[in-house]
Design goal:
Layout lengths: L3 E2 L1 E10 L3 E2 L10 H13 L13 E8 L7 E2 L2 E10 L5 H18 L3 E10 L2 E2 L4 H14 L14 H4 L24 H20 L1
Antiparallel strand pairs: 1-8, 2-6, 2-7, 3-5, 4-6
Length: 207
């Protein structure tokens, strides 16, 4: 049962330098150097040790692109993409301020210009364990015969919009083949899940 989700922040970092020939490095400003320094510094920092109900926050570099097929030319521009999955210890504002400070310092040392864009963002949220989650856990045990755990792992979900209006806990099908070619589930799993939803509603309106 997912009683919360980590936040997700996608950022594109860009370093602008001055193009030139590798044989004349003094006439150029290589943007790759400050970009790599920035990424190394970001990855080197441990963001936190976790939060109640959450694993530690994590940053991953997902792409580095220069667009330069030549071996002997210093490029004009270098970009990188990164994603941060963060818990309730952070906000997007604090994370972006940290990224900007790190990148601006590296850009200044290399006489480069730094900019960034955000491609997507979602906030972390958490529903405290209590009567609501206990009701769902009891319904699962009734239908499946197992005691489910509460977790906040995995990706983001549309529950981040609903949590603004009510308590949220997510219960669904198994996800071994989620987002894979030939994604599927057993028909019996759907039937059992429907019975579980019925048990949740029965317990909810009886409480």
């Amino acid at each position: 049962i997912k009683n919360g989700r980590r936040g997700s922040l996608n950022v594109v970092l860009t370093m602008e330098g001055k193009q030139g020939h590798v044989a004349y490095p003094r006439r150029a400003h290589n943007p790759v150097t400050p970009l790599v320094e920035t990424l190394a510094a970001l990855k080197a920092r441990r963001l936190d040790d976790g939060a109640p109900g959450f694993d530690p926050s994590n940053l991953e570099v997902t792409s580095i692109d220069v667009g330069n097929p030549a071996h002997n030319v210093i490029p004009q521009r270098a970009t990188a993409k990164l994603n941060i999955r963060f818990n309730t210890n952070h906000t997007m504002e604090t994370l972006l301020a940290w990224i900007d400070a790190t990148a601006n310092a590296a850009a200044e040392r290399a006489a480069a210009r730094y900019s960034r864009t955000i491609s997507s963002q979602s906030l972390a949220f958490y529903t405290d364990p209590g009567p609501f989650t206990d009701l769902i856990r009891a319904s699962v045990k009734e239908c499946f015969g197992i005691e489910p755990a509460l977790a906040t792992t995995g990706g983001t979900s549309d529950a981040r919009y609903l949590r603004l209006y009510c308590q949220v806990a997510e219960l669904g099908l198994r996800n071994e083949t989620a987002h894979m070619v030939d994604e599927h589930c057993a028909v019996e799993d759907v039937r059992t899940l429907a019975r579980c939803y019925e048990a949740v509603l029965r317990r909810y309106f009886a409480s």
